């Protein structure tokens, strides 16, 4: 492949592009603009829901691009001409009832939510302000499995990340894919669905060579994406397991580590 062939650059949002206080630096914004001006494809890939990602795309000046949301369960194309500003290209769903029933026995105090794509979340109890985007509808626990969903969110501040992993292993989550967040938070997706599976669809659609893919991330839900990429880059503050999955490690979010990676592509 020629050196100047367009690359697919997959960027996680929280802890990679924006700080945990949701701040996007001017340097990061400029670096994204520069690689896009050079002809590369910048694709946001996040655990966030689609409606929580479109404002970030807007802030980055990205009007037309692909977007991988909900840890890969939702793949969309940003299109300013579309009514919602995007077109859903693929939505992966599963029946959440078995998982919810098992988890409720293990974690009766937890808060549970299921995603309604493009709208918000249904939940058995309100989540703390700012943690989930879109409309919030509180329903009876049994109503959470009224239909197929793209993901289940479990929030249980009493548990550690290690305890979440232990519970998931004990319950034998073999028909779903799960990612445990930096706090007591678990996202459960359809089986085999990760940021990497969503990005692979985007890569094929764009016709980018696998060797010309770059991914930057900091969370356990980024591990598959970093392994998938021709060049996987972990943020400096990432956990050891995330760094181990990457080809290289850049600076932390405090150092705007993503900027150095983007500039290296110019």
Main features:
14 strands, alpha/beta, about 270 residues, about 25% strand, 8-stranded mixed beta sheet, 6-stranded mixed beta sheet, phosphatase activity, Hypothetical Protein, Haloacid Dehalogenase-like Hydrolase, Chain: A, domain 2, 8 helices, Rossmann fold
Write the layout of secondary structure elements.
Blueprint: E1 8-11, H1 26-37, E2 41-45, H2 50-59, E3 66-69, E4 74-78, E5 86-91, H3 97-106, E6 111-116, E7 120-123, E8 135-138, E9 152-155, H4 161-171, E10 176-180, E11 185-190, H5 195-206, E12 213-217, H6 223-228, E13 231-234, H7 240-245, E14 248-249, H8 257-263
Parallel strand pairs: 1-2, 1-12, 2-3, 7-8, 12-13, 13-14
Antiparallel strand pairs: 3-4, 4-5, 6-7, 6-9, 9-11, 10-11
GO molecular function, one term: phosphatase activity
Protein name: HAD-superfamily hydrolase, subfamily IIB
Organism: Promicromonospora thailandica
CATH superfamily label of the largest domain: HAD superfamily/HAD-like
End-to-end Cα distance: 17 Å
Global Rg: 18 Å
Output the CATH class name of the largest domain: Alpha Beta
Mean pLDDT across all amino acids: 93
Strand content: 15-25%
Poorly predicted spans? none
Assembly status: single chain
What's the structural domain tally?
A: 2
CATH topology annotation of the largest domain:
Rossmann fold
């Amino acid at each position: 492949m020629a050196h100047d062939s367009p690359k697919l650059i997959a960027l996680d949002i929280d802890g990679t592009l924006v700080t945990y206080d949701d701040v996007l630096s001017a340097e990061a914004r400029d670096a994204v603009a520069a690689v896009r001006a050079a002809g590369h494809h910048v694709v946001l890939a996040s655990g966030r829901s689609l409606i929580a990602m479109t404002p970030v795309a807007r802030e980055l000046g990205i009007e037309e691009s692909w977007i991988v949301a909900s840890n890969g369960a939702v793949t969309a194309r940003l299109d300013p001409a579309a009514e919602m500003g995007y077109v859903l290209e693929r939505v992966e769903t599963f029946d959440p009832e078995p998982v919810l029933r098992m988890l409720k026995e293990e974690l009766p105090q937890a808060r549970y939510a299921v995603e309604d794509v493009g709208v918000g979340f249904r939940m058995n109890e309100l989540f703390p302000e700012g943690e989930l985007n879109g409309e919030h509808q509180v329903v009876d626990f049994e109503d959470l499995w009224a239909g197929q969903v793209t993901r289940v969110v479990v929030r249980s501040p009493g548990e550690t990340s290690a305890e979440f992993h232990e519970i998931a292993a004990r319950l034998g989550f073999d028909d779903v894919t799960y990612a445990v967040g930096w706090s007591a938070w678990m996202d459960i997706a359809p089986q085999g669905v990760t940021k990497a599976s969503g990005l692979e669809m985007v890569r094929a659609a764009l016709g980018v060579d696998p060797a010309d893919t770059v991914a930057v991330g900091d969370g356990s839900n980024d591990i598959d994406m970093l392994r998938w990429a021709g060049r996987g880059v972990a943020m400096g503050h990432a956990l050891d397991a995330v760094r181990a999955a990457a080809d290289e490690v850049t600076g932390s979010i405090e150092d705007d580590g993503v900027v150095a990676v983007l500039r290296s592509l110019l």
